[in-house]
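Hi R.,

As promised on Friday, here is the backbone we talked about, encoded as structure tokens. Could you run it through your design pipeline when you get a chance and send me back a sequence?
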């Protein structure tokens, strides 16, 4: 039997489903908007059923990289569920169970950011490393990664976007847009925060606009915290906001200034250009993450 995986990148606005084994080998792919859970999950299951009929054999495994929050605790009654999401209709949805019942193959399940981190570790910017993080800065901010070669789970899963960072309200009176915390990292630095603070979408602001120094400042504060807590060997920054590539040098310089020589590693002191990097897989990290989760599940 040929080894072939299915991947579901389950996003709040769209689902991407693909069949393949890695970045150089995607055999089929489809994408569709995220509507009701019933309709959306059924569409994903149907895609893989058709692929299996076409192949004449079942897929080896399926991986799901999902928006969250999700329940990742094995043995929990709601393991594999999307839980307290603000997305209407998607609270307490048994995403993993529906896919498993529809396809009857092993199914791997994790957060979208842990999936993307796994893919970057397998094929991208974190190859050969066992401790690294992947932070996405877009509509929201989320982080995943590995510590000691294992995806970070713990009590629930990390919510790196919701850490608290210093907020000088005289310099930046914007109150923040996180519905739970106001001015947490996501509330101050996600794409919608940029748009609400400056009254224009980030991609319309020129590189010398003050929005970017402030954005780099908030992200650098967060990264300095992650460097001190997890000691990652590399930090990958993805998501729509990070398509503003001029942010990278600003962030790197400010991380060095914030750490102030205290972390005396070559990565921070000399090679920071290779330490804080964009994803090597670009916007393919999501769906490749799902494929990597399938590969992981089949072991
Ligand atoms: Zn928050």
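Update: got your reply. Pasting your designed sequence below so it's all in one thread:
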């Amino acid at each position: 039997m040929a080894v072939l995986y299915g991947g579901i990148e389950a996003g709040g606005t769209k689902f991407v489903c693909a069949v393949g084994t890695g970045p150089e080998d995607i055999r089929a792919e489809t994408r569709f908007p995220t509507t009701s859970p019933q309709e959306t999950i059924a569409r994903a299951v149907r895609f893989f059923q058709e692929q299996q009929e076409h192949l004449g054999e079942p897929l080896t495994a399926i991986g799901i990289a999902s928006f969250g929050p999700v329940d990742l605790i094995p043995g929990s009654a709601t393991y594999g569920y999307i839980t307290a999401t603000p997305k209407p209709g998607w609270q307490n949805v048994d995403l993993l169970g529906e896919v498993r019942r529809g396809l009857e193959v092993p199914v791997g399940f994790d957060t979208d950011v842990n999936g993307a981190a796994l893919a970057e570790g397998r094929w991208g910017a974190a190859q050969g490393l066992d401790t690294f993080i992947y932070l996405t800065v877009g509509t929201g901010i989320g982080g995943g990664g590995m510590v000691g070669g294992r995806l970070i789970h713990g009590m629930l899963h990390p919510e790196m976007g919701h850490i608290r960072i210093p907020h000088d309200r005289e310099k930046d009176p914007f109150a923040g847009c996180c519905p739970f915390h106001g001015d947490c990292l996501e509330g101050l630095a996600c794409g919608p925060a940029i748009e609400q603070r400056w009254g224009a979408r980030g991609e319309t602001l020129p590189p010398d606009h003050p929005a970017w120094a402030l954005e780099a400042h908030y992200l650098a504060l967060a990264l300095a915290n992650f460097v001190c807590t997890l000691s990652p060997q590399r930090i990958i920054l993805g998501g729509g906001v990070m398509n503003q590539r001029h942010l990278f040098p600003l962030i790197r310089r400010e991380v060095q200034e914030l750490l102030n020589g205290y972390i005396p590693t070559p990565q921070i002191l000399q090679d920071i250009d290779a330490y804080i990097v964009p994803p090597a897989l670009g916007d393919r990290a999501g769906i490749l993450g799902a494929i990597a989760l399938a590969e992981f599940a089949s072991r």
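One thing I noticed while checking it: Residues 162, 178, 180-181, 184, 186-187 surround zinc ion (CB under 6 Å).

Thanks again,
M.
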